[in-house]
Amino acid sequence: MRFLTSANAARLVFAGLFALAPIGQARAADAAGVLTTYSDIALAKYEDALTTAQTLQARVQALIDKPSAAALTAARNAWKAARVPYQQSEVYRFGNKIVDDWEGQVNSWPLDEGMIDYVDAKTYGESNEDNPLYTANVIAHPKLKIAGEDFDATELNAVTLRKLHEADGVEANVATGYHAIEFLLWGQDINGTGKGAGNRPWTDYAKGASCTHGNCDRRGAYLTAVTGLLVEDLEEMVGNWQADGAARKAMTADGMDRGLAMIFIGMGSLSYGELAGQRMKLGLMLHDPEEEHDCFSDNTHNSHYYDAMGIRDAYLGSYKRIDGKTVVKGPALADLVKAKAPAVDTELRKLLSATMDKMTVLKKTADSGEMAYDQMIGEANPKGNAIVQAAIDALLAQTKGFEKAIETLGLGAVQFEGSESLDEPQKVFK
C-alpha cells in the first residue's frame, strides 16, 4: 500500500530516528548470525515468489494461446498461489529502503482499475476529480492524453506499462504488479459487501467473434506484459538478497544495532500501521469493500494471514519454503531476547501465536464459504466485524510486545509506521 496521508510522513521521519545504544562486542557475533538468517530467509521468500510468478506467467500464456474457462481458472489459481510467498515477504518492506522503493511497482493498491480496462459505471462512477485517467481504459484507447501531452499506447508492452504506472503523478494509476494482474483475471467485484468476487468471463480473451467487451487482443497483450514485468521485478529483488546483493549489504552497512532495528521496524510497521491499520481497521470503520487488499479475487483473508505469518517468522528466524519440506532457519531475534529476558521472549511468542490463532479463524471462515473478507467488514455483520476486530487487537498487542523486546535489547528509539485509522480515527470520516 502506498499510503497517502500522515503515515507516509511517519515513514519518512522514522528512517532518521535511530538513537540506538551499542549492542556491545559480546553480542556482535550473535547479532551477525541473526542478520544472516534474516537475509537468507528474504532470499528464499523472494526466490519462491519468483518461482510462483513464473508459473503464473506460464498459465497466463496458456490462457492467451488457447482461451477457455479452464485456462482462466488455472491462471487465477496460479495468481493465488503466487501471493503466498510474496505476502510472507512483506515484513521486509519497512526499514529496508531498497525493498520499499521497489514495492510500489509490485504490490500497489488500491487502484483505479478504469485506467486499465472497462468498468461498470453504476458501481465505479464515470469520473474522479482527483484522477483525470479514472476511466481512461487504455486497453480500448491506444491514444491518450496524460497531463495534457499525447501518450501513445498502441503497443501494450513493458515500456508502455512502466510509463503508465502512477501516470500523471496519481498513485491510484496502478499499471503494474499483482493487483493489475488480479483485475485482468477477475474483473471488478461489483457485489459490494455481498457474496461473490469478480467474474470476468474467459471470453474477454477469446479470439475473433467470440470476444466479449472488445479489444481481446489488446487485453491479452496487457496481461502478458504485466505478468512479464512481475517476473522481471522479482528477479531484481532475488538479486538484491544474494550474498553480494545491495539489500543484504544494507543490513550491516551502519552496524549490527541498526540492522536489528531494521528487522523490528519491518515487523512493527507491518503489524501496526499497515496491516492492523490501513488494511484492516480502515475498511472495518468504513464498512467499505474498496478498502479490501485483494478486492477483485476475494483473496484478502489469505493475504492477511500470510502477512501475519511473515511477521512471526521474522522474529523466530524460520521459514518453510513452498515445497512444504525445506525450512530455512538460524539464529533469530527470539534468541537474543530470550538470552537477555526470557519472560519477554515467552510473552512475545504467546502474542505472535495469538495473532496467528485469530488470523486462522479469519482464514477458515472465508475458506469455508461462510463469508468472504469483504462480507466480514460489512455494516450489518456483527459476527464478521468481531472476527476482523479480534485479529486487529491481536496485531496491536504483538506490536506492544515488539516494543518491550526493543527495550530489552537496548536498541533505543525505534518508531513504527502509523495509520490514521488507529492514531487519528476522527479524521477518517472527514
List keywords for this structure.
mainly alpha; two-stranded antiparallel sheet; 430 residues
Tell me briefly what this model is.
The chain is mainly α and 430 residues long. It has helices at 6-14, 25-65, 69-89, 97-107, 121-124, 158-164, 178-186, 216-240, 246-250, 256-286, 300-316, 333-340, 342-367, 373-376, 382-408, 420-423; strands at 143-146, 149-152, 318-320, 327-329. Helix 2 (25-65) runs antiparallel to helix 8 (216-240), helix 2 (25-65) packs across helix 10 and helix 12 (333-340) packs across helix 13.
What is the helix content? 55-70%
* N- to C-terminal distance: 21 Å
Profile the largest sheet.
2 strands, antiparallel
How many helices? The count is: 16
The portion of residues forming beta strands comes to: under 5%
Shape: globular
**Cross-sheet strand order for the largest sheet:** 1-2
On the 0 to 100 scale, the average pLDDT is: 92
Structural class: mainly alpha
The poorly predicted ranges are 1-23
Question: Could you state the order of secondary-structure elements as H and E?
Answer: HHHHHEEHHHHHHEEHHHHH
* Gyration radius from CA atoms, angstroms: 22 Å
- Count all strands and give the number: 4
Notes on the structure:
It is a single chain. The chain has 430 residues and is mainly alpha-helical. It contains 16 helices and four strands. 58% of the residues lie in helices and 3% in strands. The model is unreliable at 1-23 (pLDDT under 50). Strands 1-2 form a two-stranded antiparallel ribbon.
